[in-house]
Design brief:
mainly alpha; about 150 residues; single chain; Arc Repressor Mutant, subunit A
Length: about 150
């Protein structure tokens, strides 16, 4: 059991660290950080946008980190706010600008290239089983954390 635990934890940690390094390395081309990229990718899923709080939940990133990322993206013309008369900005929807959408498309190409390379050696069925198992583990760990 300990060996299984160690293998799992060490593998997840190694994967996470590699993802962080890759995000930082690949996003320098766009003058972005990993959290910036996650916000852009998430915003590409909705024409109506998301609030900063929604982005934080969807991206599973710290609210302060998302707030900094959104401010940075706004300063660089990649997002705008749909204020709609809201007094508090954090309740406003954040949406991609046309430039933000263009950058998002480029980021998705980079991600697709990396995911193709990472998945090399797995057939579609093995990949499906892997992601199903990963989702089950993630859901169960979330339940344990929430209790």
């Amino acid at each position: 059991m300990i060996t299984r635990f160690e293998t799992f934890v060490l593998s997840v940690n190694r994967i996470y660290r590699c993802i962080q390094k890759i995000k930082n390395k690949e996003m320098t081309e766009f003058d972005l950080k990993g959290t910036n990229a996650m916000c852009i990718i998430t915003l590409m899923k909705s024409d109506e946008g998301f609030t900063a709080a929604e982005l934080s939940n969807i991206c599973m990133e710290d609210k302060a980190a998302v707030s900094r990322a959104v401010s940075y993206l706004e300063e660089h013309g990649l997002v705008s706010f749909d204020d709609c008369g809201k007094k508090r900005r954090y309740r406003s929807k954040v949406m991609l600008t046309d430039d933000g959408k263009r950058v998002g498309e480029q980021i998705l190409k980079v991600i697709e290239k990396i995911m193709t390379e990472v998945g090399d050696g797995l057939n579609d069925e093995e990949r499906r089983i892997f992601y199903k198992g990963l989702s089950v583990i993630s859901d169960k760990l979330t339940k344990i954390c929430d209790n």
